[in-house]
Specification:
The protein is an all-alpha fold. It has one domain (3-442). It is built from 16 helices and no strands. It has helices at residues 3-13, 16-49, 51-87, 91-118, 120-126, 134-147, 149-163, 167-191, 195-214, 234-307, 311-338, 340-346, 352-365, 369-384, 388-414, 416-442. Helix 10 (234-307) packs across helix 11 and helix 15 (388-414) packs antiparallel against helix 16.
Length: 443
C-alpha cells in the first residue's frame, strides 16, 4: 500500500472527533502563538514608543490585513479545490492547483504593494492618520508595502501544508515565526532603536523563517505538494477566486472594521479613542485568531469529505466545530467581563482616560464572542462545500454592511459605547440569518 493510499484511508476511517482534534490543536496552538506575537508587538511598541506610536501602528494595520486577505483569497480558494481533488483521488490535478495558486499569490501581492507604495502618503491619511500619528503610520506601512509579499507566500504555503495532511508542520512554522518575531522586535526596538519600522521588519523576517520551515514538507515521503510546470488556466483561476472570495472579504472586513472604528473614534474621542481602540484591537486579535484556528481546522476536512462524498462525516465535523466555537465564545466573554483592567495594564501606563475607554470597550465588545465563533465556523463550512453566496453574505455582513450601519446608528444614541456595541449587534444579526437559512433548507 502506497503512502498516498494510506493517508486517504487515515482520513476516511479515523473517528471524526479524533480527526477534528488532530487538526484543531495544531491550528489553535499556531494561531494562538501568532496572536500572542501580535499582542507582544503592541506591548513592545506601546511600552517603548508610547500610545501615539501604538495608535500609528494600529492605523497602519489594515495594510497587513489586505496582504493577508489576498493570500487567503487565492490560497483558501485553491486549497479547497486541492483537498476536494485529493478526495476525488486526482493527485496530478491537485499539484497543478498548488503551483497555479502560488504563482498568482506572489505576482498579485508584489504588484499591489508597489502600486500602493507610489501613493503612500494619501493612503496613510485615508487609513485614519492625523498629524500626530502620520510619522508612525508612514514608517510602519512603507516596510509592509515593499516586502509584504513575503508573509503572503508564507501564509498561503501554510494553508496548503495543512491541507496536505501536515497540520503539525504548519503549527511548527507558526511557532518559529511567532518566537522569532518577538526576538527580532526586542532587538530592533530596544537594542537598535529602529522604531516602528523595526517592528515591521521583524514581521517580514519572521515570515521568511516560516517559509523555510514549511519547505521541509517538500522532502517528506507523505507529501503530495509538488511544483509542476505553470500554465495559466482561466477556468481554474475563476473558480479559485469565486471559492476564496469569502476569505478575502473576511480579511477586508477586518480592515474595514479597523479603519471605520479608527475614524469614528477619532471623531468622537480624539487620539485617546484611537489609542484605546488599538489596545482593544490587539486583544481582539487573540480571540479572532482562535476562531480562525477553528476554521483552519475544519476547512481541509470538510473540503476533503465533500470531494469524497462522505457527507455524514462532513456533518459530524461541523457539529463538533460549532459546539467548540460556542464554548470558546462563552469563555472569551467572561474573560472580558472580569479581566478588562488587568488586560489594559499590560500595554503600558497610559493616562486614565485611555485606560477607562479601553476597559469599557473590552467589556462591551466581548459580547460579540458569544456569536462570532459560530459565524466563523458556518462561513468556513459554506465556503468548503461551494455555497459561496451564503459564505459571502456572512463575511460581508459581519464587519462591513451591518457594522457600518450600526456605527452610524449607535454612537449618536450611546456615544463611545455605541461604537463598542456595533460588532456585537452585527454578529448577533448574522447568526440569526444563518439560523433562518438553515431552517429554510431543512424544509
Amino acid at each position: 500500500m502506497g503512502v498516498q493510499q494510506a493517508k486517504i484511508n487515515h482520513l476516511d476511517t479515523q473517528p471524526v472527533g479524533r480527526t477534528f482534534v488532530r487538526y484543531l490543536i495544531p491550528s489553535l496552538v499556531g494561531m494562538l502563538l501568532m496572536a500572542v506575537n501580535f499582542v507582544v508587538d503592541g506591548v513592545m511598541v506601546g511600552n517603548r514608543l508610547g500610545p501615539i506610536a501604538l495608535a500609528g501602528v494600529g492605523i497602519a494595520g489594515p495594510v497587513y490585513t489586505i496582504f493577508l486577505a489576498m493570500s487567503l483569497w487565492i490560497g483558501i480558494g485553491a486549497a479547497t479545490q486541492y483537498s476536494q481533488t485529493m478526495g476525488a483521488k486526482k493527485k496530478k490535478r491537485a499539484q497543478f492547483i498548488f503551483t497555479h495558486s502560488l504563482v498568482f499569490i506572489f505576482g498579485a501581492t508584489l504588484i499591489i504593494g508597489l502600486i500602493a507604495f507610489l501613493f503612500r502618503e494619501p493612503l496613510a491619511y485615508a487609513l485614519g492618520a492625523n498629524e500626530e500619528t502620520y510619522p508612525f503610520v508612514s514608517r510602519y506601512m512603507n516596510v509592509l508595502l515593499l516586502f509584504g509579499f513575503v508573509f503572503t507566500i508564507e501564509n498561503a504555503f501554510s494553508v496548503f501544508v495543512r491541507n496536505d495532511g501536515d497540520p503539525n508542520l504548519a503549527m511548527l512554522a507558526l511557532i518559529i515565526t511567532a518566537f522569532s518575531n518577538i526576538a527580532l522586535n526586542y532587538v530592533f526596538l530596544y537594542k537598535l532603536n529602529l522604531g516602528v519600522a523595526g517592528a515591521a521588519f521583524s514581521t517580514i523576517l519572521a515570515a521568511f523563517l516560516g517559509i523555510i520551515v514549511l519547505s521541509i514538507h517538500f522532502f517528506k515521503k507523505s507529501s503530495n505538494l509538488r511544483l509542476v510546470r505553470f500554465k495559466f488556466e482561466k477556468s481554474l483561476f475563476v473558480q479559485t477566486m469565486i471559492i476564496g472570495f469569502p476569505s478575502f472579504l473576511a480579511e477586508v472586513g477586518i480592515s474595514v472594521f479597523t479603519i471605520a472604528h479608527n475614524i469614528t473614534l477619532e471623531r468622537i474621542a480624539g487620539t485617546d479613542g484611537v489609542a484605546a481602540f488599538s489596545v482593544l484591537n490587539y486583544v481582539h486579535s487573540v480571540m479572532l485568531m482562535m476562531f480562525l484556528g477553528m476554521g483552519a481546522a475544519i476547512q481541509p476536512l470538510v473540503s476533503y469529505y465533500h470531494g469524497a462524498k462522505r457527507h455524514e462525516r462532513k456533518q459530524q465535523t461541523i457539529r463538533i466545530a460549532v459546539w467548540t466555537a460556542v464554548g470558546a465564545g462563552v469563555l472569551f466573554f467572561f474573560i472580558g467581563q472580569f479581566a478588562a483592567k488587568p488586560i489594559v495594564a499590560i500595554f503600558g501606563d497610559f493616562p486614565d482616560s485611555i485606560k477607562h475607554l479601553s476597559a469599557t470597550g473590552i467589556k462591551l465588545f466581548f459580547i460579540a464572542y458569544l456569536f462570532m465563533g459560530t459565524n466563523f465556523v458556518m462561513m468556513t463550512y459554506y465556503q468548503s462545500v461551494g455555497h459561496v453566496r451564503m459564505a459571502t453574505w456572512i463575511t460581508a455582513s459581519r464587519e462591513i454592511l451591518m457594522m457600518i450601519v450600526f456605527l452610524f446608528i449607535l454612537p449618536p444614541l450611546f456615544g463611545v459605547n455605541g461604537v463598542w456595541l456595533a460588532i456585537p449587534m452585527s454578529e448577533f444579526l448574522v447568526l440569526l440569518t444563518i439560523y433562518l437559512y438553515q431552517k429554510r433548507r431543512r424544509f
